[in-house]
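Batch manifest line 251
LIGAND: adenosine-5-diphosphoribose
JOB: complex structure
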Amino acid sequence: MPTGKLKPIASILRQAKEIVVFSGAGLSADSGIPTFRDGATGLWNKVDPDEVASIDGFQRNPRTVWHWLLQLKNLVDERCPNAGHQAIARLEQIRPGNQLTVITQNIDGYHTRAGNEHVFEIHGTIHRVRCHRHCGFVATWEQNASEPFPCPHCGAPVRPDLVLFGEMLNEEVFAAAQVRSLTADVFFCVGTSFTVQPAALLPVWAQRAGATVVEVNPHPTPFSDVADYSVRSGASQFFDALCAELEESKR
Ligand code: APR
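JOB STATUS: finished
ARTIFACT:
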C-alpha cells in the first residue's frame, strides 16, 4: 500500500469533526463475499441482475429472486466482517470526538456487526423481509423462510427489505445520508465502482460542500481523478494502517 498518502490523510483526519465512510462491495471482498462487477468473479458477470435482483424480475418470478438472494444471505451468514470493517469500527473509538458515519451500499450488515453505531444502509439489508405494499409488516429473514410468502397483515407478497434494481431508495434514509455527506469534513469512498445512482452522487455532493474526499480502491475508478486522494490499496490494508498511524501519534 502506498504509504506516502497516509500521513497527510491522518493529519487531515485529526482536524476533522465529521467523518463519513461510504462503502461498496469491495469492502466485503476480504470476507469472501463476491463483488458485483470485478472481472470473472463479479456476480453480475455470472447472472443477469434483471432476473435475480430487479423489481421486474420479482414481479415476473418472485421465487427466482427470493432463492438467489437467499443463497447470497446464506453466504453472508456463513462469513463475517473482515479487518477492513473492524478497522473502520476502531476509527470510531480512536477519534471519539468525531462523528463517524458509515453510509453503505452493502446489504450484509457487516459494519454494524463490526461495531459501528451510525450506519445508513441506503440499499437496505439482506437480513430483513417486508411487505411489498409497505403495510408495515417487517421481520427478520428467518432461515426457514425458504419460499416467498404472503404478508400476514394484508396478503400482499413479502420480499427482502433491500432496494431492487428499478426501485427508489428509502427517501428518509437517503436524505439523512445526504445531510451527513454535505456536512462531512472527510469523506472516505471505499470499495465502490461508483456505478449506481443516486448513491454515487454522495461523494460529489460532499466534495462540493467542502469535504476532503479519499478514495480507497486497488483499481482506478471514474472517481479516481476527482478524489482529493486516490489510494491504490485494499480496504483492510489501508484502514489498518490508518488506525495504526492515528494510534501511534496519540502515544
Ligand atoms: N478493497 C477495496 N476495494 C476493492 C477491493 C478491496 N479489497 N476488492 C475490490 N474492490 C473494488 C473494485 O475495484 C471495484 O471498484 O470494489 C469495487 C466493487 O465495485 P462493484 O462490484 O460495482 O460494487 P459496488 O460499487 O458496491 O456496486 C454498487 O451496485 O449492484 C448494485 O446494489 C448493488 O450496492 C451495489 C451497487
